[in-house]
Amino acid sequence: MGHMDTLKRNKLYWIKSRDLEAFSWGIHYPRLDVGRLVADELTRNPPGKHVSLDIDDFLRSTLRQCLAAQEAESRGLILSNLGILLEPDLDLNPVKLFLELSLDAVVVLVWDYAIVDGTRFVWDEAEPGYGFLFPSHTITNMELPDEVP
User: Fold this and answer.
1) What kind and span of H or E run contains 98?
2) Residue 28 lies in a domain
3) Domain ranges, residue 27
4) Cα–Cα distance between 77 and 64 in angstroms, integer?
5) Which residue, among 108, 78, 90, has the nearest Cα to 42 in the 3D structure?
6) Rg (Cα) of the chain, in Å, rounded?
7) Residue-by-residue pLDDT tens, the chain, 149 positions
8) Does residue 49 belong to any structural domain of this protein?
9) Cα angle for residues 25, 109, 15 (degrees, 5° grid)
């Protein structure tokens, strides 16, 4: 069974960046640097008093456009550099966004920091409140074959 067979819609996955090359073999999902996207948007359009709504709308629109542009039967995104989504000033709900996107496509999060109990993605284990908390059974580690053909 190839790893394309293991990818299913309505599922959210995570992977470490060191495994990304093996995962990407034969899969043509675009990889988006979320930190760069958000930083570029904040530079182009300095935030007003509703920065969280502006950035949330921008992210939703950008990610959905990227999915809509894909012509393959299986659509998906690989999202990396997610730390900016944790910025308190942005007041975002990225978990909700990731889960919504995973209803229509494969969403793979690249996360190189601590993962606690398979559901809490934390930037620093010393500050476990600073991270993403996923509902149980909504995110899965991307299982990679021992050998990539």
Assistant:
1) helix 94-101
2) yes
3) 3-140
4) 10
5) 90
6) 15
7) 344 544 555 679 999 998 888 776 667 889 999 999 999 999 998 877 678 788 999 999 999 999 999 988 889 999 999 999 999 888 899 999 999 999 989 999 999 999 988 899 998 877 777 899 999 889 998 865 554 43
8) yes
9) 55
